[in-house]
Amino acid sequence: MIADLKFRLSNTRQLTPPLEGTGSEYGFNTNETYRWIWYWMNQYPFQERLLKINRYPQYRTNIQGLDVHFMRVRPEVPQGMEIVPILMLHGWPSSFLDFQEFIPILTAVDPDRDFAIEVIAASLPGFAFSDGAVRPGFGVDKMAVVLRNLMHRLGHKRFYVHGADWGSVVLSNMATFFPEEVLGYHTSMPVNASPILMFLRLIGALKPSLVVSKPVEDRMYPLKTYLEKIIGEFGYFYIQATKPDTVGESLTDSPAGLLAYYFEKISVGTRFYYRLRADGGLLLHFTPETLIDNLMMYWISNSIGTAGRIYAESFGPRYLSLDIDSIPSPVPTCILQAKYEIAYTPPWMFRYKFHNLLHETILETGGHFLALELPEILAKDVLQAVVRFRQWHCERKHRNCAKG
Please, which residues bridge with residue 151 across strands? Predict the structure, then answer.
């Protein structure tokens, strides 16, 4: 596989030079693409990274006809300490590797807590080493059922969840379908696309104070700025929501093309204004090894095509007709919102669906790929969310509740 990859990289055709005086406004700068191709071929430490990627146990099990891939790390605890499970899901173009830096933090045993956490970090169906569907119609709602059944397979009838990007949407569906099983839902990308809330966002453009508090008003308004971002940066979204296989074929065949496509989304997702930089600002937040590790998960598994279909299957008429975001869920919820996330959702909007929103963490930094950019901050917020969820459930049962 490595020999084939290096052969393809070394035989990359001459790329179209960037326009004079531009950064990455037209897409990832091709001069930078050459530099990264050279790094991937000649400096990326394949064997060293292989050991790092495999430092935690990984498995595959067949759920409803699909082999589902996941990491599972169970802590060693003193006798009598409870172990509680959390399912963690990534988005696109991320992978289960997002959570590797989380695991030591979440599975650490703290004598001041009466519990420890078992982490199950799964690859979404169609991503990395999880099978993709062979028939149409497999959207995030169906993924929610498969991954809930994965937790049952592992012996967990009730569990906590955390997700970002598509993982967040899958888990929102799961919390809607199985509110008695999901003990708590934490997300770093809280979204609600119900029609009434979309309308209220537009109303807020006339008077933002009706919708959002002053300290975070600039994350939503002026609406013109937000729309410019959506129109300018969501081209990939429209393609993958309509014709994912066409672009999937190109990215499957060309590692250089896959690199440019992936890096461009990492760049603007981290900071929108990095599109003005030729280097995309990538090394301001991530190591070269971390970036290529995630790229390798798509290349090795040949999954970029099946992963891209999540957009078409979850933005088609079948799924949208379910109007899942308008169905309330009683599952207790905590949210974290980074400064440079794609969109900001006011807590009252999120409560429209998740009535039991217990806490909002607002960061003054961080972008869309927060698990890679600020893993310690995000992991500690997840841990605090589990403490809050346990306290909430305990109080519902009218017992003596020790703070975790």
Answer: none
pLDDT in single tens digits along all 404 residues of the chain: 999 999 999 999 999 999 999 999 999 999 999 999 999 999 999 999 999 999 999 999 999 999 999 999 999 999 889 999 999 999 999 999 999 999 999 999 998 899 999 999 999 999 999 999 999 999 999 999 999 999 999 999 999 999 999 999 999 999 999 999 999 999 999 988 888 888 888 888 888 998 999 999 999 999 888 888 888 889 999 999 999 999 999 999 999 999 999 999 999 999 999 999 999 999 999 999 999 999 999 999 999 999 999 999 999 999 999 999 999 999 999 999 999 999 999 999 999 999 999 999 999 999 999 999 999 999 999 999 999 999 999 998 876 676 55
**Taking Cα atoms as reference points, which of 48, 17, 11, 43 lies closest to residue 31?**
17
Measured in whole angstroms, how far is the alpha carbon of residue 272 from the centre of its chain?
17
From the list 69, 352, 368, 381, the catalytic residue is 368
CA 290 – CA 327 distance, rounded (Å): 38
Active site residue 4: no
Q: Where do runs of H (alpha helix) occur along 302-374?
A: 304-314, 317-320, 347-351, 370-373
Q: Which helix (DSSP H) or strand (DSSP E) does residue 118 occupy? A: strand 115-122
Is 262 one of the annotated active-site residues of the chain?
no
Q: pTM of the full predicted structure?
A: 0.96
Number of DSSP helices (H) and strands (E) in the chain, helices first: 17, 8
- Whether 355 is catalytic: no
Is the distance from CB of 167 to CB of 91 less than 8 angstroms? yes
Query: Which of the residues 98, 141, 165, 279 is marked catalytic?
Result: 165
CA distance 282 to 284: 5
Among residues 185, 298, 311, 344, the one annotated as catalytic is 311
- Report the interhelical angle of 255-270 vs 288-301 (nearest 10°): 130
**Pairwise CA distance, residues 286 & 99, whole Å:** 14
Quick count: other Cβ atoms within 10 Å of Cβ 371? 25
C-alpha–C-alpha distance, residues 53 and 84, integer Å: 24
